[in-house]
Amino acid sequence: MFIFMISFISSGNLIAQSTKPTQVNRNDFWNSVRFGGSLGLNFSNNGFTGIIAPSAIYDFNEIVSAGVGLNAAYAKQNEFKTTSLGGSLITLINPVRFLQLSVEFQELNINRKYELNGLDLKENYWVPALFTGIGYNTGNVTAGIKYDLLYDSEKSFYSSALMPFVSLYF
Asked: How many domains does the chain have?
């Protein structure tokens, strides 16, 4: 019995020595980063709108992610043209696997040009947007709706405070 106890204690000691903590691998950070974003196209009788919004998201855990993004958009309707360039800060919360809640702050530079009766009118200004959203998550793809809490119908690039979205991350 004594020999059995010494063998048991010794084997436990050997196992404990072989499982020393390893140094944190720098690649662990990049294993938690996902790249993706959104792409939008709208064609109508009067014009065209195109939006591209690439972003990078860091997964802190299975529930909370945060990241940064870029936004570029172009719209043309009859004699009206506008472009938008800017950046965003994004937070995603997945309380359950299929549900995604989001908060996104955007700061956009808007350039507008009106061509009315041979007259060119131009505007250039910055406008913030603060979106809260909810979406259905199916792994890499999330589809949902978001609402701009700071929406200004006179200055916003978007035609409505309420917007559907589809985003894809890898």
From this structure: 1
